[in-house]
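Internal ticket #5521
Category: modeling
Description: The requester needs a full-assembly model to guide mutagenesis choices. All entity lines are attached below as received. Residue total reported by intake: 1009.
Assigned to: D.W.
Attached entities:
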Amino acid sequence: MQLSDDHIAYIRKDLHYRGIVHEGLEEELIDHICSSVEEQMEKGIRFIDAYHSVLKKFGHTAGLRQTQQQTLQINQHSKNRLMLKNYVLIALRNLRKHRFYSFINVAGLSVGIGICLVILLFVLNEISFDRHHVFADRIYRVHSKIDFAGNHYDMTYAPAPMAATLAADYPEVEAAIRFRERGSYLIKRETENIKENNVMWTDKDFFKIFTVPLLAGNPETALAEPNSIAISKKIADKFFPNEEALGQTLILDNKLNMKITAVFEEMPSTSHFHFDVLIAMAGLEEAQSPVWFSNNFQTYFLLREGANPKDLESKFPDLILKHVMPQLKEVMGADFTLEKFKEAGNKMEYYAQPLLDIHLKSSLQGEFEPNFDITYVYLFVAIALFILIIASINFMNLSTARSANRAKEVGVRKVMGSLRSHLMRQFLMESILLSVFSFILAVGLAYALLPVFNELSARQLSLPFDQPLFYGGLLLGALVVGVLAGIYPSFFLSAFKPVNVLKGNVALGMKSGLIRSSLVVFQFMISIFLVVATIVVYLQLDYIQNKKLGFNKDQVIMVDDAYALGDQRVVYKEQILQNSFIESASIAGYLPVEGTWRSDNPWWLEGKEATQENMVSLQNWQVDHDYIKTFGMTIKEGRDFSRDFLSDSSAVILNEAAAKALSFDDGIIGKRINTFGDGENGGVSTTNLEALTVIGVVENFHFESLKKNVSPLMLFLSKRPGGYISFRFQSANTEEVIALLENKWKQMAPGQPFTYQFLDESFGKMYAAEMRLGSIFGIFSTVAIVIACLGLFALTAFTAEQRTKEIGIRKVLGASVSSIVVMLSKDFGKLVVIAFALATPFAWWGVTKWLEDYQYKVEIGWWVYALAGASAFLVAWLTMSYQSIKAATSNPVDSLKNE
Amino acid sequence: MHSPELLKGTLQTIVLKVLKDHGRMYGYEITQRVKELSDDRIFLTEGALYPTLHKLEAEGMLKTETVNIGKRVRKYYVLTPEGKSLVKERVAEFADFIKTMANVLQVQLG
């Protein structure tokens, strides 16, 4: 039988009464109960009895409620998902509605994050240097600190016997090897020479200490025999394409026959050395030298597991006493003692420098490649953080500023029953969404930026798209930035009291902006600081480029590897000189740019004792007659070398620093200077003295980086000059000059590679690090200012919008456009001025610190700071004025006709 | 009659299997069918049935169809394709369980 409508209504009412309200469940229960009741009534049971027996099965009111509770809990999960969807939907709607603010937020954030990503990649790359070696934490390099004869050496070079002594006499040392650099080599298989730069002599334990995987050959025996070499895969492919290189022979410099005993993998870009050819040290005569006071070998050693490098270092003074001092005594005479040595201001110390410190913390004489500086790593990290903070500040500023518009929304939501936590979730969701968008854009931006950055920083960075960690990191980053940037606005907004908000009592615009103002100040502080830094780096660079160097770096071309011409080098020079546009030419390996030859020796004025007080360490530069003329140096006293004086073969020209160091009296011209001559078996002799006569003094010229003082130097004539052949030419026919040089070279040295460089370019390379720093700072400060201005732009737009009515009324009452523009810009202008006042001391401190490194530096006047401040102010004002003028020129009718 | 304690873990399996064999069913119908199949030895507790049905629906194993009959609404449950594959799994699992229990308790299954 079918229950009547009254019965159903009764059941429905009764269930309500018992607290069943869940819509879906209620209908189901009614149907269930009805079906059951109908069945029982068919057996003749009364409705009310049947109903109660069914209720009993459900466990009466308590059971029903429990069932409802359980059902509710099950549905809770899907409801949460629904709410999340709702948050996302509302967030998207809000972002779309306020397109302008969303755009500024996303643009600022993504530029900031993109830059941060690039910097992060760079920093990670820098700190990973040399970590690929399995024993990286046990490998050390000998670091020598030697003060001798007024010269200070802080270098990677150690004496030849050092490595063998360390390995033999010191139980802490497991193995030790040396490197010896002898410049570039011409390498050929049969006829065609190729010039290779990364060639190094080394001991056989190289493969034991360093992790350089071999593709062919045995690491134990490779490089053990004299005349054996190990080559990189690149070289193997170059000389033996599609052939087994192992066991073959290569000829170096047209005379050394070398057997290939190993082929190794390319050394990774994060290594502090990159060698292509390793030559067995056993074949190098110089390496057998027992001399302890000549430092020429980069020495690395592997410490035994568990040994303490400090213990080893503490044994170095004894090593010096035992080995170095006896030899010094032999040379310096019987009255030599350690005390006298120290009294004269000399010192000799050795340290163990960890391999992992080399790339970031070391810049000694004799580094294989220029290293990076840990200060710049810190600086970059700081800048990345600053930019990220600036971008996040924009976000917070805009969100809180917009709060006035959203206050009503908050009020209504709260009245409708939203909890504070719901609102916070809503606002956080919006900021996380923005942040996720920005991260996606930022990855694209970083991808586009990396090639440019790689160019600037001389690295090969790429985004690690194949690593899951990268995506995880990005997502985590997006969440963290989203939460950090959104947490303040979400607290701020969700704390509104609905009563106040709906009455319209919420503080609007700038009135509530103490935090906002300080954030703007902070943004502009950082921007002004970066602008000052950029200007200063560029000023210093400009100063270096244009400083009077003591020689003329322009219009000089240098042909490398004069030795390839053999005895014909002078003929080559003479034949080239026949052309009218070649002004002069000189053959010399010692040039006033870094990377060319250097050599020094102690000298003293003849007639004085060869004591340490009288000895001066001089750069000994072998040149030819036309050197001074070709490089445009100036003779201060005396004369230049001349072919008219045969005696000039034993003449010397000093630079001013040398003249001063050797003799404080005037008139050094005509005096003679002495040094020790060659002794037997490669040592020096105390009795066989060499002597040269001073014929002139040349004006000091800078032959090292401007970070250093000009040190004492002497020029004398070489019997057989070599190295580079430099030509001074007239401008405008550079191409012609190169073609001429190359054709002649091909004629006279067939099969030898022709390479050349320009003096001004080689000089520029000495400051490559500074140039990079300048460009990088330039980019960073531009980005910082652009982001800060984006924020300011949006803030002014917002204030103008807020004050539309006020502006309308002012205009109706007769205010001029300019007075309104001033009124709108005044608040923010003040902030920029405060930022300038706060940034200046920091900038001044940073600039002074940086310039301390330079012996020759530019004067930084107050105008630099003024310029930075003015430009920040100008950019900020331009940004604001667009919005202010737009607001001020609008027709008051439009803004006042509503309400 | 079997104790509700024993039935606790099997409720989902029973509901799924019954729905598989009979297609579209509503809550009361399910209880009646189970009663019939078990010769009045298994009564599904109404209090547990509906939460179970809602749970399976939320998990996407069941879908529902509502039909108005007079003043009341009847909600039918049907297995989704996922639900169908789940039934096989559950039944096989349970058969395996019975075997294991027989071994553990040392009883012969008729």
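Resolution: model delivered.
Comment from assignee: The mean pLDDT of chain B is 85.
Ticket closed.
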